[in-house]
Each structure stands twice: as structure tokens, then as C-alpha cells.
Amino acid sequence: MQETSETLLMADQARIHALQNELQAAGLDAFFITNLTEIRWLTGFSGSNASVLVRKDLAWLFTDFRYQEQVKSEVKNAIPIIANDGFITELKSGKYRLDGQVGFQSDKITVSFLEKLKSDLPDVDFVPKPAFFENLMMVKTPDEIEKMQKAVEISDKVFEKILPLISPDVTELDIAAEISYWNKKFGAEKDSFDPIVASGPRGAMPHAKPSNQKLLPNQLIVIDMGCYYQGYASDQTRTVGLGKISSEAKKIYNLVLQAHLLGIESAKAGMSGKILDEIVRNFLTKTGYGSYFGHSLGHGVGLEVHEQPHVSRRSVAPMPAGSVITIEPGIYLPEQFGVRIEDMVLLSESGATPFQKSAKQLIEV
Amino acid sequence: MQETSETLLMADQARIHALQNELQAAGLDAFFITNLTEIRWLTGFSGSNASVLVRKDLAWLFTDFRYQEQVKSEVKNAIPIIANDGFITELKSGKYRLDGQVGFQSDKITVSFLEKLKSDLPDVDFVPKPAFFENLMMVKTPDEIEKMQKAVEISDKVFEKILPLISPDVTELDIAAEISYWNKKFGAEKDSFDPIVASGPRGAMPHAKPSNQKLLPNQLIVIDMGCYYQGYASDQTRTVGLGKISSEAKKIYNLVLQAHLLGIESAKAGMSGKILDEIVRNFLTKTGYGSYFGHSLGHGVGLEVHEQPHVSRRSVAPMPAGSVITIEPGIYLPEQFGVRIEDMVLLSESGATPFQKSAKQLIEV
């Protein structure tokens, strides 16, 4: 539809202009972008090989032969260049004006790659600019929030699909296979990370990989999963019981649920991740289980499943309105079991709105 | 089983010793490894956060709380350290002797990360060592070849499972969902890359992402897929016909098949990737379709689905015996269709042995 394309085009131009304003403010002549996530955010290009050079007056996107069709349909705000011998060779050709102070993503570019850039493009003064895009990308537009909402809807539906499959006859990998399958069947591009399905004592390993172990009866199962929808990630965790769950496990479950709800109630824009992490951690410490919550409370979500703002003891900057974070406290009792409950929330000045609708009371199947 | 664990332990020790010998030869006091693939190859650790410091006398593996259980079962040849505030803070504590010439993976570490290392560990002289592991990792051990064989067996079985599902009633994404599903059901950890399922004109985009488009009747479909088994990747492409395929498409199919078989016949250890790429490219150029083969002939496969040795115009080093490469010529006619046929082969002095068993004659379903 004409209208949609024009709206999108304007959004894309707005991002290039925002970047060009940042260039101006930082005293740079150009910016050199090599990371695919930032390139997707800036230009819409979703291929696996690209570099973008943004000057004050225009932008080029370099990719290779494989994407000569795709680049035409996806990129509206940069001039696409097919550079089969690599963009550095292309830049060396002299066809492009490139000198002065050029910013680069020093937190993404390798030491070797910078050395090559410097030796191949001696007229350029490369200026390290770590995290240059983070502030631009952290605040989500309505269009981005809608895509994340869609990704979460898929995850909620996938969770409903897999709940009836949970039984002592299936393995962790079986459930993981179903999650990956239904993600795609419900319209996601793919998993946003490898699903975690961890039964019984394996649930005490917060990042356990699904194994060939059958789901253990009368034990908790931690299920952490997500998908990408039009480039945007979802991420959620539920812990469910198979059979009769011990009263100790139920107690721990309810503590984690209280901690999770406390996190959602307390979160709002303007607060630092450090403070939010502290509120939930202090609660768990008072219950005596603080030392069994060994990871940070959450992380930003967007085009990447882990992005800014982080929600950890080290996150001192205020989280802006329009940012999306996870709230995922957990208690892990080694060699016994683990509990984690996770939603994504959208932060505003007045509070936090969860994306997920999946039930949070302990489900025993 | 006792015997297996001891054999594995010896293999692990051999890798640490090989690295320590390289240190000696390079005049280094230690080596600092930050990339997870190399860490898995060296220590067996498969978690998502680790750094390894190898000194001439011992090795440490730093990870975080989440992996305190996993690290015990996986790592036998390095001392595991749980460093919840990051390994740099841990190293700064003074508990570890660390000075002199320390090599680092300059082709993997970012510019910002190196700056942080240098400022936090001022007594260390960091020495850039790009591609330090490539020669060590390129030649596969029998154990590694066995795992890759198993990964390929899974892919062959998955291909058999999806062939009967191909019909005008299903979308590209439906087939991709089945591929991801059956990978896991047959025992793979996950896809080694996002499956490509590209029907008709979409097949002319060598890296098309599966879409909601139904499979087009009387058209070719490019299916490129792979999985990880115990960390090792498979990668294969077949192009199949749905319904009645035009004689032009059949002609192109047979040219690509000839090119693919020529590649397998010609490949052997000691040859450079450049020469092998040239042999196949010259054949396609003589048929008049050379300009429609825009990517390189192949790439190494191992713990990563794309690794050394590359098989491209720029790969001048001889490929060693025991390395595994793909041979994947293609012809892509824009807005019409594409054909690609890909196997993995093991190189020896006498030739190349394909891993895949899936049929290569055009299948019309």
C-alpha cells in the first residue's frame, strides 16, 4: 500500500537524519556502521552482510551479489552498492569521497578489522565511538512496539500449544522442538534464542540446554523461550509443574512470583536498572534466598534479545520512557530445582506494562 | 564410561599442550581466549559466557554463576573460576599471576574491549594474534569427523522427512518450521543456520529468507539447511522441482550438478581454495552462465558452519588433509529461479569424500 510505504520511508529518513544530527554534534564528517542490527534499524536491510557509510549529505549501503534483489526491496534511505570484492576494495576505488573524522563502532569492530581499515584508507581519521546508537535505539517507536507485541502474542500462543504436551513421556528436546516449530508456524522468522527447557535439577542451571532427558515427574520445569517477528524479539519464562510438586518447591515458586510482581510494580521510566534490580534483590535477600538469585534482574529487548538498558547492579543510567525490559528474577537450588518467571514490560513515566498474557500462577499439568 | 572420559581428557590435554607449544614458538607468556567457539574446541565448555587464560603451566576458565554446575561436568583441562563481576575484575584481584607478553584474538576482540583490558591490566603487554587457532582447528580429529558425520546423517534424514511435505498448499515458512522441528527430533541441538526455503523467483536470491509465500507449482525450490550435533555443524543444499519443470530449468539444474560433481572430483588436500573455485567457475563460464554464479564455491565447516578453509578467489593457502569444506556452485537467474547443490566433503591427499547421501538427480515431486 502506497501510504504504508511512504510512512515507512519517512521513519527511515528520520533515523538517518537523527544520526546525521549526532554526527554534527560529535564533530564527525561521517559514520561507518558495520553491525547488522544497527544497519537493520537504520536502513531496514535484513541480509547477513552489509556495511553502511553515513555522510552528512547521504548514505551508502554496501553488500554483495547475494543480496542484489533483496536490497532493492528493503533499502529506501541509502544508496545500495553491490561490492563483491568487499566494501573496503570498493571504497579504495576512489569513487567515493571519504576523508576527515569518521566515527566507527569501537564496541563492535575487531582490532584486526580496524587495523585493515586504517592501512587501506590512510586519509581517514577513525574516531572510536562505542555505543553510539544505544540512546537512539533504546526508545521504541509505536511501529516497533507493535512488532514486539506481535512477537509476544506468538510466544503466548506457543506456550499454550506446548502446555498440553508436557508429560513424563517426552524429553526436554521434544518440547524445545515444538517451541521452534510453533514459533515459525505462527509467523515468527525464528527463535530469538535457543529455547531452554530444563526439568528438575537441570532447572537449577539458569542456562541449561535442552537434553534427551525425559521430563521428571513431580518436578518443576523452567521454560524460557522467544521468537523474532519482523526483526523484533520476544523473551519470556514460565516455570510449570509436572505432577505433584513438593511444598518447598511451591514456596520457592511463590517467592519468585512475588519478586517478579514486585519488579513490575516498581519499574518505571527514569529509574536506573541498578535501583530496580536492588528492590527485587533486597526482597529475595530478606526471604533468605538472595544468594540463589545469581543473575541480573533483566535486560532490554528490541532488535536484539539482549540490548540496552540492562537491569543489573552496574546499570546506573536512568531507563528512558519507551524502552522495553525484561523482569526475570529466579531462585536456583543446586541439584534440586530452579524457578524463573519473566515478562517483558514497556516503561513509561507512570509505570511498567507487561506484554505477556500467559498465566503466572503455578500450573501443574 | 571410564574409558571414554579418559580418552576425552587426553584429547583435551593434547589441545592445551598444542596451544602451549604455539605460545612457546611465538615467544608469548600466555594467551587470552575470548571467543566461545575456540573455547569450546579447547576446553569442551559450551556455555554462552567464558574467557580462558592459558599460561605455559596451566589454564583458567572464567564464567559466571549460571554455569557453575555445567562447568564442572564439561571442563576437565582448565581450572574453572566463577567470576560474577566479570573476569577482568577477577584478574585485577591480584590472585592470578599475569604479566609479560599475552597474545589475544585480535580478529575477535573489539577495539573497546582491548582498550578496557589495557587500562585495567597495565602490567600486561597485549600482542595481537589474528587467526591463531585456525591452523590448529582446521584439521579434524576422528572424533570430530564422527560428530560431523552424525550431523549430516540427521540432515539427510530431515531432507527425506520434508520431501513428501512439498506441495502447492504449504508455504516456505511451513517447510522451514519442519526442518527446525525434525533437526531437534532427530537429536540435533539446533539449526546450524536459518533454513533457506526459496521457491521460484525467490530462489534467485541466494540467501532468501523463508516467506509466507506458498510453494509455486512447476517451479524449482532451493532448500539449504543444516544442524549442530554435539557442537559440530552440517550444511547441505538441494534444489527440487514441484510439478512440471521447464526444460530451461532442467538444463540449468544439470549444469549446476555437473559443476558440483566436477568440484568433488577435483578437490583434494594440498590444493588451494582459489584453484578449486577456479576449476568450477571456469566450467560455468564456458557454459555462458559464469556471471550468474556470484558467490564463492564453498567454505570450511566444523564447530562453526562457516570457518577456514574458505574456497574462494581469495583463498591462496593449500587446504590441509583432514579439513572439511562445502562444494556449492549455483546459478541464479534474477526474477526467474535459482539452482544450488551443496555437499560437505572431507579432504585427503587422494581426493574428497562427500558426507551427504541425499540424491542429487533432480527430484520432481
From TrEMBL, chains A, B:
Entries under Pfam families matching the protein: Creatinase_N, Peptidase_M24
GO molecular function list: metal ion binding; metallopeptidase activity
Biological process annotations from GO: proteolysis
Claim: Hydrolase is one of the keywords in the record: yes
PROSITE patterns: PROLINE_PEPTIDASE
Ranges of residues in domain Creatinase N-terminal: 15-136
InterPro entries assigned to the protein according to its UniProt record, in alphabetical order: Creatin/AminoP/Spt16_N, Creatinase/aminopeptidase-like, Creatinase_N, Pept_M24, Peptidase_M24B, Peptidase_M24B_aminopep-P_CS
Keyword terms of this UniProt record: Hydrolase, Metal-binding, Metalloprotease, Protease
Domain of life assignment: Bacteria
Residue ranges occupied by any Peptidase M24 domain in the UniProt entry: 146-348
Keyword Translocase tagged: no
Family of the protein in this entry: Belongs to the peptidase M24B family.
Protein name (Swiss-Prot/TrEMBL): Peptidase M24
Organism expressing this protein natively: Chloroherpeton thalassium (strain ATCC 35110 / GB-78)
